[in-house]
Amino acid sequence: MSTVYLNGEYLPKDRAMISVDDRGFLLSDGIYEVTPAYRGRLFRVEQHMRRLRHGLDALRIEYDSAGLPEMHAELIAANSLDTEEVAIVYLQITRGVAPRTHHFPPAGTLPTVYAFAQVHRRPESARWEQGYEAVTVPDERWARVDIKSIGLLPNVLAQQAAVEAGVADALLVKDGVALEGSHNNVFAVLDGVVTTHPATQQILHGVTRAYVIELAREHGIPVEERPVPLEEMRAADEIFFTGTTTEVRPTVRLDDQPVGNGKVGPVAKALYEAFQAGTRA
User: Which CATH superfamily is domain 125-280 in?
Assistant: First the structure.
Protein backbone atom coordinates (compact mmCIF):
# COMPACT_ATOMS: atom_id res chain seq x y z
CA MET A 1 0.00 0.00 0.00
CA SER A 2 1.47 3.33 -1.05
CA THR A 3 1.96 6.23 1.34
CA VAL A 4 0.12 9.45 0.49
CA TYR A 5 -0.05 12.93 2.00
CA LEU A 6 -3.33 14.43 3.16
CA ASN A 7 -3.69 17.66 5.11
CA GLY A 8 -0.41 17.41 6.96
CA GLU A 9 -0.32 13.64 7.47
CA TYR A 10 1.54 10.81 5.74
CA LEU A 11 -0.68 7.74 5.79
CA PRO A 12 -1.51 4.56 3.83
CA LYS A 13 -3.58 5.31 0.75
CA ASP A 14 -6.54 3.23 1.95
CA ARG A 15 -6.81 5.42 5.05
CA ALA A 16 -6.90 8.71 3.12
CA MET A 17 -10.47 10.02 3.31
CA ILE A 18 -11.80 13.21 1.75
CA SER A 19 -15.25 14.63 2.55
CA VAL A 20 -18.00 14.47 -0.06
CA ASP A 21 -18.49 18.16 0.72
CA ASP A 22 -15.02 18.99 -0.62
CA ARG A 23 -15.30 21.73 -3.24
CA GLY A 24 -12.90 19.87 -5.49
CA PHE A 25 -15.35 16.96 -5.65
CA LEU A 26 -18.46 19.12 -5.98
CA LEU A 27 -17.23 22.02 -8.12
CA SER A 28 -13.74 21.22 -9.49
CA ASP A 29 -12.68 24.16 -7.34
CA GLY A 30 -8.94 23.58 -7.13
CA ILE A 31 -5.63 23.21 -8.91
CA TYR A 32 -3.03 20.49 -9.33
CA GLU A 33 0.65 20.05 -10.16
CA VAL A 34 2.75 17.10 -11.33
CA THR A 35 6.47 17.17 -10.57
CA PRO A 36 8.94 14.56 -11.85
CA ALA A 37 11.83 13.04 -9.95
CA TYR A 38 14.79 11.33 -11.64
CA ARG A 39 16.50 8.72 -9.45
CA GLY A 40 14.97 10.40 -6.42
CA ARG A 41 15.95 13.95 -7.36
CA LEU A 42 13.05 16.34 -7.95
CA PHE A 43 13.43 18.04 -11.32
CA ARG A 44 12.78 21.76 -11.69
CA VAL A 45 10.73 21.71 -8.53
CA GLU A 46 10.94 25.48 -8.03
CA GLN A 47 9.48 26.08 -11.50
CA HIS A 48 6.64 23.68 -10.69
CA MET A 49 6.01 25.41 -7.36
CA ARG A 50 6.04 28.81 -9.07
CA ARG A 51 3.32 27.63 -11.46
CA LEU A 52 1.38 26.23 -8.51
CA ARG A 53 1.54 29.57 -6.70
CA HIS A 54 0.35 31.30 -9.88
CA GLY A 55 -2.72 29.06 -9.86
CA LEU A 56 -3.36 29.57 -6.14
CA ASP A 57 -3.18 33.32 -6.56
CA ALA A 58 -5.40 33.31 -9.66
CA LEU A 59 -8.09 31.26 -7.89
CA ARG A 60 -7.59 33.15 -4.59
CA ILE A 61 -6.93 29.99 -2.59
CA GLU A 62 -4.94 30.94 0.49
CA TYR A 63 -2.27 28.34 1.19
CA ASP A 64 1.38 28.59 2.23
CA SER A 65 3.29 26.43 -0.26
CA ALA A 66 6.72 26.90 1.34
CA GLY A 67 6.98 23.33 2.68
CA LEU A 68 5.79 21.53 -0.44
CA PRO A 69 9.21 20.62 -1.92
CA GLU A 70 10.12 18.85 1.34
CA MET A 71 6.79 17.03 1.30
CA HIS A 72 7.47 15.90 -2.27
CA ALA A 73 10.87 14.54 -1.27
CA GLU A 74 9.35 12.74 1.72
CA LEU A 75 6.76 11.03 -0.48
CA ILE A 76 9.47 9.85 -2.89
CA ALA A 77 11.42 8.37 0.01
CA ALA A 78 8.39 6.91 1.82
CA ASN A 79 7.39 5.02 -1.33
CA SER A 80 10.94 3.74 -2.02
CA LEU A 81 11.14 5.57 -5.33
CA ASP A 82 14.63 7.00 -4.76
CA THR A 83 16.29 4.65 -7.24
CA GLU A 84 13.59 4.66 -9.92
CA GLU A 85 14.61 6.16 -13.25
CA VAL A 86 11.47 8.33 -13.28
CA ALA A 87 8.82 8.96 -10.63
CA ILE A 88 6.16 11.64 -10.33
CA VAL A 89 4.49 13.42 -7.44
CA TYR A 90 0.89 14.47 -8.05
CA LEU A 91 -0.36 17.33 -5.84
CA GLN A 92 -3.92 18.67 -5.64
CA ILE A 93 -5.14 21.62 -3.60
CA THR A 94 -8.84 22.47 -3.39
CA ARG A 95 -10.65 25.31 -1.67
CA GLY A 96 -11.64 22.87 1.07
CA VAL A 97 -14.73 21.40 2.71
CA ALA A 98 -17.82 23.59 2.94
CA PRO A 99 -21.53 23.59 2.09
CA ARG A 100 -21.96 23.74 -1.69
CA THR A 101 -22.30 27.31 -2.95
CA HIS A 102 -21.32 29.03 -6.17
CA HIS A 103 -19.42 31.66 -4.19
CA PHE A 104 -16.40 31.19 -1.95
CA PRO A 105 -16.93 29.56 1.45
CA PRO A 106 -16.43 31.55 4.68
CA ALA A 107 -13.01 32.99 5.41
CA GLY A 108 -10.87 30.54 7.34
CA THR A 109 -12.03 27.45 5.43
CA LEU A 110 -8.95 25.25 5.21
CA PRO A 111 -7.84 24.04 1.78
CA THR A 112 -7.66 20.29 1.18
CA VAL A 113 -4.12 19.24 0.23
CA TYR A 114 -3.56 15.77 -1.21
CA ALA A 115 -0.49 14.26 -2.87
CA PHE A 116 0.80 10.87 -3.98
CA ALA A 117 3.95 9.54 -5.65
CA GLN A 118 4.30 6.76 -8.18
CA VAL A 119 6.75 5.34 -10.69
CA HIS A 120 6.58 6.46 -14.32
CA ARG A 121 7.88 4.25 -17.13
CA ARG A 122 9.54 5.85 -20.13
CA PRO A 123 8.85 4.16 -23.47
CA GLU A 124 11.48 1.74 -24.73
CA SER A 125 13.90 3.47 -27.09
CA ALA A 126 12.79 1.27 -30.00
CA ARG A 127 9.18 2.38 -29.47
CA TRP A 128 10.19 6.05 -29.26
CA GLU A 129 12.17 5.75 -32.49
CA GLN A 130 9.02 4.62 -34.31
CA GLY A 131 7.33 7.92 -33.51
CA TYR A 132 3.72 8.49 -32.52
CA GLU A 133 0.46 9.67 -34.06
CA ALA A 134 -1.98 12.44 -33.17
CA VAL A 135 -5.41 13.69 -34.18
CA THR A 136 -6.78 17.22 -34.18
CA VAL A 137 -9.65 18.02 -31.80
CA PRO A 138 -11.56 21.32 -31.33
CA ASP A 139 -10.42 23.19 -28.22
CA GLU A 140 -13.49 23.58 -25.99
CA ARG A 141 -11.70 24.58 -22.77
CA TRP A 142 -12.27 27.70 -20.69
CA ALA A 143 -10.38 30.96 -21.26
CA ARG A 144 -7.77 30.55 -18.49
CA VAL A 145 -5.83 27.51 -19.63
CA ASP A 146 -2.69 28.93 -17.97
CA ILE A 147 -4.26 27.96 -14.60
CA LYS A 148 -3.66 24.26 -13.94
CA SER A 149 -7.23 23.69 -12.82
CA ILE A 150 -8.63 20.29 -11.87
CA GLY A 151 -11.62 21.04 -14.14
CA LEU A 152 -10.33 18.88 -16.99
CA LEU A 153 -13.45 17.50 -18.67
CA PRO A 154 -12.68 19.06 -22.11
CA ASN A 155 -9.15 17.62 -21.89
CA VAL A 156 -10.57 14.21 -20.98
CA LEU A 157 -12.94 14.27 -23.96
CA ALA A 158 -10.12 15.34 -26.28
CA GLN A 159 -7.79 12.59 -25.10
CA GLN A 160 -10.60 10.05 -25.35
CA ALA A 161 -10.92 11.04 -29.01
CA ALA A 162 -7.23 10.20 -29.40
CA VAL A 163 -7.70 6.86 -27.62
CA GLU A 164 -10.64 5.97 -29.84
CA ALA A 165 -8.55 6.86 -32.90
CA GLY A 166 -5.78 4.59 -31.63
CA VAL A 167 -3.18 7.38 -31.34
CA ALA A 168 -1.10 8.91 -28.58
CA ASP A 169 -2.04 12.59 -28.61
CA ALA A 170 -4.87 15.03 -29.25
CA LEU A 171 -3.86 18.35 -30.81
CA LEU A 172 -6.26 21.10 -29.69
CA VAL A 173 -7.26 23.60 -32.37
CA LYS A 174 -9.11 26.89 -31.90
CA ASP A 175 -9.94 29.48 -34.58
CA GLY A 176 -7.66 27.64 -36.98
CA VAL A 177 -4.64 27.76 -34.65
CA ALA A 178 -2.90 24.67 -33.25
CA LEU A 179 -2.50 25.45 -29.54
CA GLU A 180 -1.25 22.44 -27.59
CA GLY A 181 -2.09 18.86 -26.65
CA SER A 182 -4.80 17.66 -24.29
CA HIS A 183 -2.19 17.26 -21.54
CA ASN A 184 1.01 18.59 -23.08
CA ASN A 185 2.48 21.38 -25.21
CA VAL A 186 3.25 21.08 -28.91
CA PHE A 187 6.11 22.23 -31.14
CA ALA A 188 6.56 22.32 -34.90
CA VAL A 189 9.87 22.45 -36.76
CA LEU A 190 9.34 24.87 -39.64
CA ASP A 191 12.30 25.42 -41.97
CA GLY A 192 14.67 24.53 -39.14
CA VAL A 193 12.99 26.78 -36.55
CA VAL A 194 11.46 25.21 -33.43
CA THR A 195 8.11 26.97 -33.24
CA THR A 196 5.48 26.92 -30.49
CA HIS A 197 2.53 28.99 -29.33
CA PRO A 198 3.52 31.79 -26.92
CA ALA A 199 2.85 31.40 -23.19
CA THR A 200 -0.47 33.25 -23.09
CA GLN A 201 -3.70 32.40 -21.26
CA GLN A 202 -4.57 30.06 -24.16
CA ILE A 203 -2.03 27.38 -23.21
CA LEU A 204 -0.56 25.84 -20.10
CA HIS A 205 2.85 27.31 -19.31
CA GLY A 206 4.62 23.97 -19.38
CA VAL A 207 7.74 23.55 -17.26
CA THR A 208 9.03 20.98 -19.75
CA ARG A 209 8.09 23.33 -22.59
CA ALA A 210 10.29 26.07 -21.11
CA TYR A 211 13.14 23.62 -20.52
CA VAL A 212 13.02 22.34 -24.11
CA ILE A 213 13.15 25.93 -25.37
CA GLU A 214 16.27 26.45 -23.23
CA LEU A 215 17.82 23.26 -24.59
CA ALA A 216 17.11 24.27 -28.18
CA ARG A 217 18.80 27.65 -27.71
CA GLU A 218 21.76 26.04 -25.94
CA HIS A 219 22.23 23.77 -28.95
CA GLY A 220 22.00 26.59 -31.46
CA ILE A 221 18.54 25.66 -32.73
CA PRO A 222 16.48 28.79 -33.48
CA VAL A 223 13.21 29.15 -31.55
CA GLU A 224 10.15 31.23 -32.32
CA GLU A 225 7.11 31.63 -30.05
CA ARG A 226 4.09 32.57 -32.14
CA PRO A 227 0.64 31.22 -33.03
CA VAL A 228 0.92 28.38 -35.55
CA PRO A 229 -2.03 27.96 -37.96
CA LEU A 230 -3.14 24.37 -38.31
CA GLU A 231 -2.35 24.28 -42.01
CA GLU A 232 1.20 25.41 -41.26
CA MET A 233 1.44 22.72 -38.58
CA ARG A 234 0.35 20.12 -41.14
CA ALA A 235 3.20 21.21 -43.44
CA ALA A 236 5.85 21.06 -40.67
CA ASP A 237 9.06 19.08 -41.09
CA GLU A 238 8.60 17.75 -37.54
CA ILE A 239 6.03 17.87 -34.75
CA PHE A 240 6.65 16.89 -31.16
CA PHE A 241 4.81 17.19 -27.85
CA THR A 242 6.39 18.00 -24.48
CA GLY A 243 5.25 17.53 -20.89
CA THR A 244 6.16 16.16 -17.48
CA THR A 245 5.25 12.59 -18.41
CA THR A 246 5.42 13.14 -22.19
CA GLU A 247 9.01 14.49 -21.96
CA VAL A 248 9.73 14.90 -25.72
CA ARG A 249 7.44 12.77 -27.92
CA PRO A 250 7.74 12.91 -31.72
CA THR A 251 4.63 12.82 -33.92
CA VAL A 252 5.12 11.17 -37.30
CA ARG A 253 1.47 11.18 -38.42
CA LEU A 254 -1.24 13.81 -37.85
CA ASP A 255 -4.83 12.97 -38.78
CA ASP A 256 -3.48 9.87 -40.54
CA GLN A 257 -1.19 11.94 -42.78
CA PRO A 258 2.63 11.79 -42.53
CA VAL A 259 4.49 14.60 -40.82
CA GLY A 260 7.52 15.50 -42.94
CA ASN A 261 8.97 12.26 -44.25
CA GLY A 262 6.91 10.24 -41.77
CA LYS A 263 9.88 9.44 -39.55
CA VAL A 264 11.25 10.84 -36.29
CA GLY A 265 13.19 13.96 -37.20
CA PRO A 266 16.69 15.06 -36.17
CA VAL A 267 15.52 18.04 -34.09
CA ALA A 268 13.18 16.02 -31.89
CA LYS A 269 15.84 13.36 -31.48
CA ALA A 270 18.53 15.88 -30.54
CA LEU A 271 16.25 17.59 -28.02
CA TYR A 272 15.17 14.28 -26.47
CA GLU A 273 18.77 13.23 -26.05
CA ALA A 274 19.59 16.62 -24.50
CA PHE A 275 16.56 16.29 -22.23
CA GLN A 276 17.67 12.87 -21.00
CA ALA A 277 21.19 14.16 -20.40
CA GLY A 278 19.79 17.09 -18.43
CA THR A 279 17.79 14.81 -16.14
CA ARG A 280 20.95 12.84 -15.40
CA ALA A 281 23.00 15.92 -14.51
Answer: D-amino Acid Aminotransferase, subunit A, domain 2 (3.20.10.10)
